[in-house]
């Protein structure tokens, strides 16, 4: 698997919201696994490149969840679960802000990537075990929400392409804080 695998499913037809988010989770798992299999010690150029791809994908995923999925999910899932997920996102964004500008000679690079991996793994497992089943069994229009998630994901990928390399760019500050309207997804009557 190469790091370009991360975008293999980006242009698939719209699925429901849970499928879209699980696709993101699986893409991130694959990227983290690939990162862990890279040879060499410390922050090699290839590790830096894969870490940057992980940060891009993770940033996009957190934004689409925060802007679209979480507001809709709050209608059917306890605020406590969504609040915890938001705090986990904040922790991941904090780590990304530290990782993105890191230089190759930074001795904490691999340690920070390991913490990010474990934090994201925990977050994905909780969503898949507790949040997604509740949303899936609700009357939310998951097909419409899935289309919105895919559209926003595409917009963000296009915006990040114009940025080029994330090194020296503060994507978390740039993207997070931009407020968008909530999801148009409504509960089916």
From TrEMBL:
UniProt cross-references to Pfam families, sorted A to Z: Hemerythrin (PF01814)
Domain (Hemerythrin-like): residue spans on this chain: 17-135
Regions that span the bilayer: none
CDD domains membership: Hr-like
PANTHER family associated with the record: HHE DOMAIN PROTEIN (AFU_ORTHOLOGUE AFUA_4G00730)
Protein name (database record): Hemerythrin domain-containing protein
Source species of the chain: Massilia horti
Classification lineage: Bacteria, Pseudomonadati, Pseudomonadota, Betaproteobacteria, Burkholderiales
